Amino acid sequence: EISPVHLLLAGLNEDQQRAVTAPEQPTVVFAGPGSGKTTVLTRRVLYLLNRGTPAHQLMVVTFTRAAAKEMKERLAQILPDKVHKLAIGTFHSLFLMMLRDAGEQVYPLLSGVQQTRWMRQFLEERGQPVDDETVSTFLNQISLCKGNIILPDRMKVQKEKNILFRDLYMAYEEKKRAAGLWDYDDILLAFYHKCQHSRTLSEWQERFQHLLVDEFQDINFIQYHILLKLTQRHRRLFAVGDDDQSIYGFRGSDPSFMLQLKQDFPELRQIVLSVNYRSTDEIIRLADQLIQHNRMRQSKPRAGTGTRGLPVQWMDPENEEQEAEQILARLRDGMETAVLYRTSTQARALIDALVRKDIPFSVSTGDLSFYRRWQVQDILAYIQLAFNPNDLDALIRIINKPKRYLFGEGWVEAGWALARKSGRTVLEVLPELPCLETYQIHYLNELREMVPTIRRFSAVRAVRYICEMIGYSRYLEKYAEETGNDRDLVSEPVDELLLAAEHCSDGQALLMHAEKVNQMVKNNEQSPQVKLMTLHKAKGLEFDRVFLIGLHAMVLPHRRSLQVPESRKRAAWEEERRLLYVGITRAKSELYLSISKERQGKRVGISPFAREIGYGGAVDSFCQQIQSVNEISELRKSTPKKTLTSQPQMRFAKEEVSPGMHLIHNRFGKGAVIRITSIEGVAPGRKVLVRFHDHTLTLHYELSRQLG
Ligand code: ATP
Ligand code: MG
Question: Burial code of 329-344, b = ≥16 C-beta within 10 A, e = fewer?
Fold first, then answer.
């Protein structure tokens, strides 16, 4: 049954209540992290249902599938029999469903793997460099164009690079059409075009009279214009967002659409939420200090709940290995933990350590395992070939890295036949293939001689040998030069692999380890002790404890993000700062910022952002003992009276449990309440976070009350 309104609003502050119960007209909730935007959106759904809005009239748009899933779960707890009638999902999934329901022809979706394969093929056919970066850059660019409704036949191009791009774009579209497939952007484009037909549009407008959108700051051009169409008649748009958390600019997202709403809906109501319920004061203060440095932003009132916690801690391990050890040491207490980083390579040392210790972890979907980076795969292919000289896949992979001038695939058949006839391996017979030029024979002889020696080497030496003696490093340098890529960026995975290899006895052990990691990253643990993800993937989420690793120069802001025309430098710089801001504001009670002295074996600089938030010479030692129970209660005494209990909307906290309170647990002994982690759903199933001597635990409120 649907809950009565007062229950629906339970635990919400006045502004949040105002948002939930806002009149049915365009409304935008504009507020900082942790202020309850997603909470309000969820309650708004309940509120509308409670007012008698039929469930099928609601459309709720989330930014990711994971977020949609979570919202469905939250609502299912309260409305188990209604939730399946609600349209909750990403723009793509919702629009696909609507097109289908409208009897439109929809096409199967092209997989990411297939997309990549096609682009590789196009590049190869045009004699262009083929590597993961180039491939994904072009695919991103195509997506960016489609998101702005720029189709290839309407592109005006002059520069040579753009001519290539348009050519690839056309080839891609053509191949897709011929195969009868769609990519994600085709869904939006098809939907956009369908919106131009007034009959379908008005059917849609009638069917979905309420549109609710989370993470509005990351909307792009085509999505925004579709929304305008859909809401034209009933004008019931409810959008929540935070311009400071817009981090997908590189994909065409643009927070200025939040401002444009005012022009497109003159009757727009704007509601501002100002209390961050998620984080302790220490974390909020640090986040604020950082974001103040951005110029392109709307300022918003920002307050905490007055919850004091541990100071934000800086870690300064010697290197990534030590960093991983320190993080692992912290995992034992079972507190919900996430480790966030700018680029997935940064997680390599930690993932290796977790795999070695068999600690369950998860990595955000879509993140590539380090061992699947193309450079790493190239080197591993050499090692594979050393142990199995008949490994054709490995051989094909490395044959021209560096160039040995053996092109096409005819040689594979010929080599295989020759090997079989003579009872030798393919690697061995290569130089004896028919019709080779002298220089080819020379290179292939060299390959045949050198590869088998790898078997005798330690893993580190094997990698070195492949790079320095066999010439793989030379290949990478040339490659960087030809493609105009940053040399250091291109060779970065090699440096990282050298570090990884230190833990493996020989090449074979390295191969086995890589395979194990790939498996674990793919299988993604269901109940992980720790979640690893890039800053981009952390948006909208929250965790009791967050480690933010690798606050190095050239990482944040990332060097690649700064490779933009001068006019866009500032915007790019600010987007990187927002990325760090998103990371910091994921933490509820504990935040660790880590800057190892070395990265990939080299001394490295510190992120300018770290300085902005007070990283100075005097670094608090990471191992500074956790404050004892007594210290925490001291801390509480000095806290200004503006605590959770003094907030009217938190009246329930007047009961026994409050932060700083002592309690005795029959298993863990004396503890002190650090914070009250509240509520989701209407029935407040409250929990408290309690620090015991050497554990931190989340306990149920009821339980704690008895303990107290
Ligand atoms: P983000 O910008 O990061 O997406 P958000 O604005 O969507 O954040 P929510 O995720 O909705 O914020 O809420 C943050 C946390 O605060 C959640 O744990 C939520 O349960 C809690 N919360 C929200 N409103 C209140 C409230 N009035 N009292 C106590 N806790 C609240
Ligand atoms: Mg949110």
Answer: ebbeeebbbbbbbbbb
Structure tokens that stand for 145 in this block: 């164009």
Whether residue 507 has its Cβ less than 6 Å from ligand 1? no
Q: At residue 156, does pLDDT exceed 90?
A: no
- Nearest-atom index, ligand 1, CA of 649: 27
- The span from the CA of 502 to the CA of 365, in Å, is 28
Residues 274/301, Cβ–Cβ less than 8 Å: yes
What are the tokens at 230? 């859909």
- Looking at the chain, the number of H-run helices and the number of E-run strands are 28, 18
Whole-angstrom CA distances from 41 to 29, 214, 257, 366, 631 are 9, 7, 19, 27, 39
- Region 670-696: what's the mean pLDDT? 55
Strands (E), 528-678: 530-534, 543-549, 587-594, 598-599, 602-603, 662-665, 669-677
Mind listing the pLDDT tens digit for each residue in 32-81? 999 999 999 999 999 999 999 999 999 999 999 889 999 999 898 888 88
Q: End-to-end alpha-carbon separation of the chain, Å?
A: 34
Structure tokens at 519: 């498996």
| Ligand 1 pocket, residue 35 CB under 6 Å | yes
Residue pLDDT, tens place only, 160-218 = 778 889 999 999 999 999 999 999 999 999 999 999 998 999 999 999 999 999 999 99
Establish whether residue 402 lines the binding site of ligand 1, counting it when its CB lies within 6 angstroms of any ligand atom: no
ipTM above 0.95, yes or no: yes
